[in-house]
Amino acid sequence: MEEAIIDGIKKGESLEHQTDVTDVNDEFAYLQRNEFTSEVFKIEVRNLGYFGIGELKKLLRNKLKLDMSKIKSPTHKEFAFVCFRSQADQQKAIKILNGYKWKGKILRAFVAKASADPLQKKRKEENQSEKQAYPVNKKQRTSAEATCPLAGMPYEEQLKQKGSNMEQLIKTFKGELTRINKSASKPLEDFKFEGVEPSPQITGYRNKNEFTVGKNSAGEIVVGFRLGSYADGSVEVSEVDHLPHLPDAAKWAARTFQQLVRHSKYEPFNPETNSGHFRQLTVRTSSQTKEIMLMVGIYSSNLNATDLEEIKSELIKYYDTRSGEESQFTCTSLYYQDVKHREAGQMVSPIEHLFGATHITDNIDNLEFRISPLAFFQINTAAADILYQKVIALAQPQLHSTVLDIYCGIGSIALAFSKHCKRVLGVEIISTAVNDAEYNAQKNRVQNCKFYAGNADDYIQSMVKEVVYDTAPGEELDLIAVVDPPRAGLHNRSIAAIRAASAIKRLVYISCNPERARLNWIELGRPESKQYKGNPFFPKTAIAVDMFPHTTHTELVVLFERQMENLLEENSKKTEGNAVEV
Questions:
Q1: Which CATH number do you get for residue 544?
Q2: Can you give the residue ranges of the RRM domain (predicted)?
């Protein structure tokens, strides 16, 4: 459910600071609380036809100057829900959009009913099921089933299953792309999958873990993993001590923080009522240095300044003086994170350094990396060595090549490429990660890498222009793009920018969510259009690297090459054929 800003109920608070008393089992009770939710100010827009979320955002924000908070559209066809922050903004939007002509269609806009609380809706459905003559007994998942469901399977079998899954996904992708672009048929015949590379480390490999603070089925406070999503009707949290993919340092962090929360006067966060305070714990560990970074997430909307300072002091005292029964583990870096409803334009929840070092350090491919709290770093350090070797082998950089590292993070891919090419240009939206990348390049004495802080969508074209401009007359230009996007994949604007940059001939796509990335691959291979200018990219080779043993996930790396001569020849033949027919 959307996070909200409220004055939460705390023991001993006066009535004026308490939320409205409502039936928490009501699907719409959240609307009656003393909190913000844009569901109150929602409209439905109809008769849109087929559309992209990006183009609808551009219409609403840029052209019509409407201050919306979010757009929801299950199908990207005919209708969309648009949420606002106030009734005035909602009414203004209805007035402007109702009867507005867009893409040849007359739009209709009207007030929309708020969505039901998914948790309460699911529970209501389950209650109805229990009243039936033959109710279905629902077995609650364990934390192992929720997070590492393949742990009971021999590792060789895990690799076989993942290889089979990737082969099926590639088969589906090839069929979809062939239907969309007939000229892809021949290149796809040569597209090969080279199997799954095993991880060198299969237990305790996760160097970053995000734990939830909540309660188990017995009502005890637990720091661990959620057993399901809010929308699926689950808020239960389970302990993590027995999970094979977590390092002992992360388990120690979860246990010790659980002890702190259980003895604190402040409560765990309750997502059903948006009350409570301790919300999450992010743990980063280094296998090289044994450093442990903790980032404590606090829901602060129902806390005053004095409360916040008390919680921070409690955290500092607990970890700064702690030796405990497991003194081989020590918190070397402690951060406070303010986890609540984000303000407009806020990308991440803000953090505050409390004590210890500001970073941790780890190594990949004999390179040393400084890692800040919010920066992306490969979750399995040992397997990342293999991943980067495979990426470089697929890209085949030459000493005159330039590499664009899109979503460069702290520069780990850029620095790995640096000794195999002329130079690397990287872009990353998190500015602190770019600071890390620049520091890491200097620390490792790498001088041919340059990094930009900003949105990849906005920087791709300018980086390509910089490379072309700096290429001397007669000098061979070999430009390779490497993308390692978040799980959601590349934005359509990034795909359009890559396709429009004709200087990019090869693209290596690294994906931790191949099923979602498949949609990007289709856009890369579509025929040229108004939205996607430039010849398409077709896949040549794919290889998986098992970055996530015991889970159903794997990393898939795909090399794409831009279709050039064959496509031009085919288009030329079609043109000649049409002339003859005329």
A1: 3.40.50.150
A2: 41-114
pLDDT tens-digit map of 348-379? 789 999 999 999 999 998 999 999 999 999 99
Instruction: Sort strands 42-50 and 77-84 into parallel, antiparallel or unpaired.
Output: antiparallel
Query: Please, are residues 217 and 140 in contact by the beta-carbon 8 Å criterion?
Result: yes
Q: Which of 58, 78, 111 delimits the end of a domain?
A: 111
Q: How many CA atoms lie within 13 A of 229 on its CB side?
A: 5
Assigned domain for 162 exists? yes
Torsion of CA 540, 541, 547, 550, to 10 degrees: 110
Q: Tell me the CA end-to-end span of the chain in Å, nearest whole number.
A: 60
User: What is the torsion angle, in degrees rounded to the nearest 10, for the CA atoms of residue 97, residue 102, residue 108 and residue 114?
Assistant: -70
Does the pTM exceed 0.85? Answer: no
Residue-wise pLDDT for 13-71, tens only, equals 332 333 333 454 565 565 555 555 667 788 899 999 888 887 888 899 999 999 888 88
| Last-in-domain residue among 307, 334, 363 | 363
CATH of the domain at 329: 2.40.50.1070
Q: What pLDDT is recorded for position 112?
A: 87
Per the structure, how many domains does the chain have?
A: 3
Q: Does 436 lie in the same domain as 337? A: no
**Confidence at 233, pLDDT banded by 50, 70, 90:** low
Domain enclosing residue 98, as ranges: 29-111
Q: Is the Cβ–Cβ distance between 196 and 546 less than 8 Å?
A: yes
Mean pLDDT, residues 198-203: 97
Partnered with residue 83 across adjacent β-strands are 42, 70
> Are residues 260 and 384 located together in one domain of the fold?
no
Per-residue pLDDT of 160-189, as tens digits, reads: 999 999 999 999 999 999 999 999 999 999
User: Does residue 23 belong to any structural domain of this protein?
Assistant: no
State how far the Cα of 510 lies from the Cα of 395, in Å rounded to an integer: 12
With bands split at pLDDT 50, 70 and 90, how would you rate the model's confidence at 10?
A: very low
Domain shared by 218 and 353, yes or no? yes
Q: How far apart are CA 50 and CA 32, in angstroms?
A: 35
Binding-site residues for S-adenosyl-L-methionine = 378, 407, 428, 484
Decide: helix, strand or coil at residue 186. Answer: helix
The helix (H) or strand (E) run that includes residue 87 is: helix 87-97
- What pLDDT score does 54 carry? 79
Regarding whether 221 and 190 lie in a shared domain, the answer is no
Is residue 292 within 8 A of residue 333, CB to CB? The reply is: yes
Same domain, 488 and 566: yes
**Nearest alpha-carbon partner for 379 in 554, 208, 203:** 208
User: How many CA atoms lie less than 13 Å away from 414 in the CB half-sphere?
Assistant: 33
The residue written with tokens 């529970």 in the block is 123
Query: Based on the domain organization, do 315 and 433 belong to the same domain?
Result: no
408 is catalytic: no
Task: Answer whether residue 124 shows pLDDT above 70.
Answer: no
Domain match, 309 and 356 both: yes
Q: Which residues are annotated as a binding site?
A: 378, 407, 428, 484
